[in-house]
Amino acid sequence: MVEGETEQAQGEEVRAERRSEYGSDWQRWTDDRGPFYRSCAVPPVDDRTETPAEGERPAVQFTTGITRAVLRNLPVALLAVLAVYVPTTIVQYGRSGRLAVSVPSIGVSTAIVAVPGLLVGGLWLYLLYRLFGSRFRGSTVHRSVVFFATAIPLAAGTVHAAYVAWTNAGTGADPAATVQAGYFLFVLVAGHLVYDGLALRTENLLANLGSTTIVDRETYEAFYDDLTETLGDTISFGPVELPESVTFAVVVALVPILLPMLITPWSWVGTLSYAAYSLVTLFVVAVLYDVFMLVYAFTELLRSDALSYQPFHPDEHGGFRDLGRFATRVNAILLVAGGYVAYRFYAEGILNLPDGGLGGPLVAVTWVVLYLGPVAAYVFLVLFWLYHSFWRLHRRMEEGRRERMEELQRAARAQAGEDADGHTELETDVPAWESLQSAPTWPIKRQSLFGIIVVDAVPVIATFVL
């Protein structure tokens, strides 16, 4: 029995080494592959829930419940929101005279023509789905089509809003009608990066990390068991269970969101437009909570004694390459957020400056909090993440390399013996020392890390220099 368990353990180690040598655990645990913009599902062509590539889904889930459902089906969910937000915003701008658009009145004759037209259009879409839906199953081309069909118009609206702000700076003009396109574009891109990287890939990484040679199995298993209870946890309200992320979003953001509607009377068109925008904001706050919990768990892993540096690991980064990829993905999400923060500063902040400048203290504080505050928060988060991810991994790798050098030198002394003065023979220590000098001490290539630092500075430069 013991012999069989030993062979099984050896087999797991062999499989782990092969996976580390020829592949990576930084991959999706689902049965699909491709770039990040092909990660989210497009129902009804795709299934609403994930299908594991093999075996069972990981025990640890980055997010659960309605937050995960919306994140997985983000393209369709965002299109549904835009289907409400865009027409109501156009009508609202048209009524206020800020947009030259004629809004036809809906009478009985219009309804008689519109209802059959909607039925015929719906039937046409259904026939297209029945014709091409089965061919798309098993492929992810349709995900690319939906992503870029949504992203390109949003990008065009973002560029238009930035151009309007650039050409009307200091004139007291209102932001462009397409100013919120940048926000929806940020949600679309960042949402795909989060679902692909922090959900599917990180869940797979955490599930398989315990079978690698860079962790102490007993310590890591205890850490992983704790993760199953903390990440994606739910809170019960009687018979109803809600994810902690949703509860957090409702408690933190619902009152500030409802406050403008309670203070100022709005038309039904403005209410619909604001409600659609607010639903997206609640979703963003919920996802931010889950991201924070995952990042905190990652920092706890680096503080623990679970990780073990392997200087000659096949991944050429001491076994920490996948952890470096996780850190890079979080940094990419921060960069997208920084790009939106810089865009918002120009597209809204510059144009929303009062004509007389920031004269009153209340006006100055409000403007600084709304537009400069997010930039300062971005700088803080980037510095925090660079230190608590790349730098701490670097320190852990350097410490592991030093410990290995000391271990090999002690072994060399024991084998060769010491002279009467207690000095070790030089030729015994030198080979062990030189063999570890070239061992890697960064989880990613240094050129890549330098590029990350440079790119992280772009939103700040765009805000204060351009």
TrEMBL record:
Keyword match Ion transport: no
Region of interest (Disordered), residue spans: 1-34
Superkingdom of origin organism: Archaea
Listed Basic and acidic residues bias regions: 12-34
Keywords (A to Z) from UniProt: Membrane, Transmembrane, Transmembrane helix
Transmembrane regions: 76-94, 106-132, 144-165, 177-195, 246-268, 274-298, 326-346, 366-387
Protein name: Uncharacterized protein
Annotated source species: Halopenitus salinus
